[in-house]
Specification:
heterodimer, A: about 425 residues, alpha/beta, Urease, subunit C, domain 1, TIM Barrel, 2 domains, 4-stranded parallel β-sheet, 13 helices, 17 strands, about 20% strand, B: about 300 residues, 9 strands, about 40% helix, about 15% strand
Chain lengths: ~425, ~300
Amino acid sequence: MKKQYFLNATIIDPKNSLDEMGGLIISEEGKIEAVGKKVNKNNIPSREKFIDLSGKHIFPGLVDMRVFVGEPGYEYKENFKTLSSAALAGGVTSVVTMPNTSPIIDNVSIVDFLKRRGRDKSKINIYPSASLTKNLEGNNMTEFGLLQKKGIIGFTDGIKTIQNSRLMSRIMRSAFDLGCLIMQHAEDNELSQNGMMNDGVIATKLGLQGIPEVAEKIIIERDLSLLEDFNCRYHISQISSSKSLEVIEKKKDQIDFTTGVSINNLSLNENDIGDFRTFLKLSPPLRTEEDRQSLIRGINKDLIEVLVSDHKPEDEESKRLTFSQAATGASGIETLLPLSLELFHNNSIKLPKIIKLLTSNPARVLKIDKGNLSIGNDADFCIVDINKPWIVKKEKMISKSKNTCIEDKKLQGKVTNTFVKGVELFKL
Amino acid sequence: MASSEKAIKISQKHLLGIQDLSIKDIHLILDEAKKFISLNKSKNKKLDILRGKTQINLFFEPSTRTQSSFELAGKRLGADVMSMNITNSAIKKGETLIDTAMTLNAMHPDIIVIRHQDSGACNLLSQKVNCAVLNAGDGRREHPTQALLDALTIIDRKDKVQGLRIAICGDILHSRVARSNIYLLNMLGAEVNIVAPSNLMPKDIEKLGVNTFSDMKKGLKDCDIVMMLRLQNERMSSSFLSSNREYYEYFGLTPDKLDYAKKDALIMHPGPMNRGIEIDTKLADDINKSVIKEQVELGVAVRMACLKIFCE
């Protein structure tokens, strides 16, 4: 590979507190050789060709901590190859895949298969998670230690929650001993049973069973209480309401844990469901505008560290049903960054903060050296025109499943190029 | 005559819910329905207003009065009425609602009447067919013709709805009848009281412009109309109530609770009734107080009006 020079870009690298005009040099091995304002036309060899990125931004490749892939078992929804292409179009170069496949990722033998498929079919970095309990049944723990040794990055039941408090306490003790990361989807099953959307006047009007905010809050309260005894590495996958945030704020100084939020909950509210738009049936559900605003405040107060796409590909047939029958979740990995940029354009969150939540913060939670532009690291990065206007159209989506929840939305900002290990794998 | 009728037209293509209707639409339907009341009492009940039109009744949930009422209404107007038997149809073989809609649409019906257990099913259907869709009840969301017939019954007995105090009591949570009635009665200027145990009260319902009570005696105070709802046990997956007899004790309509309402208060119930659970059996049959039978009777007139208006 030839050495590559990029000049005159605005470079944001939160890990290294970089937010400046400058350049980037990629070595022949695909590593970051130099980065920042010191890289300019004057200090590169005159015979070398460089790429002028005036008006563009360079961000580290995004790290998306919550991604569902259909492989194995649901390849018709998404396989590693299509996931990888969709991710690259969105500037995402590392993902944590959820274990909710068929079979479920709950034993050592399937991890080898997964890693092989991930390596052969995908061009991005795949970090598989395994389930917390065998067969996602919420009864018996999986082999955290052995699975971790095989390369499992963390443990979660994905769309399910550990309901049993005794089991959760034991999971935390095991994770504490083994240094494992636990990622909890916080939802009390009994309180959310048959629920389809936020519990409130809109649910009452639409005649849909609501999911009360307390269903999320009660699990967070329980888990944070249990953590006081055994403070393992613990991450709340996503929160959706201001009530949950209040609990988090109270405990933040006392114990170590991290919190994520989906871009959907940060950008949309329950009113967007309108006339039974099943593509907006999500988990956690979209809540009120006040909740959305409080989540933004949560980010600005550093109470929420991670922003995810919650990419959940579902074929259209499973959405073309009545609201109660329709599948839950939205495909969103390729719109994660553009939709996040909306929060910058409307002055909700500063740009470096958004990038931090998409890169160095998730990498820190996962303990991986990704999501940064540190010298000597793999050159995983994206080039972004943060002002480019475009409209989301499902027929133009790259993901195998087109179940976007922001169809026809006008966005500003698009990834123009994505590099993994110094190789350009996506070009607009 | 013909020209004046043409002047007022319904604003909607489909009747999916009271929420979508304007006050003009409501009066249009109610005025039309009034014309059919006497016809339904006469010897020759057959008209040919809808001759040549095809009406399909698509009932995914069991129904006696609504389905027969719609069927009769269509037949009296001269339409060809087909009632789909869901238990024998392709839906049992796994066909989705949209595919069923497409299939039926290909047969060029003029109107489809649908009842479905899922809220919003009629909305989905209406997006996929060319003809008018009448909602005969979708999940917990709306049951517009029931609310219209309730309003017609009230007007028939009390001359107006404006200014009346109306209590809707019982299982509000699962009730589409309650929701449609709240919208309609509010639009017509009534004061609406909702009385239910907290477990059967939908979240934030007061935002729809009603007063809420969990005590029958307070909720019924000085009411002109007491509308009882059926306890929908089939929709209750877990413990909402301790027992039917306790429910009857606190929320069943009994003479002593009715005493708190006005002397000339009328009792209504959309049926089917759980006698001895939400209503005292003698009260239900008391011809001086109960208008339950009249509701059924006027139901046919309201549905005739809706079929006529939405078929045009």
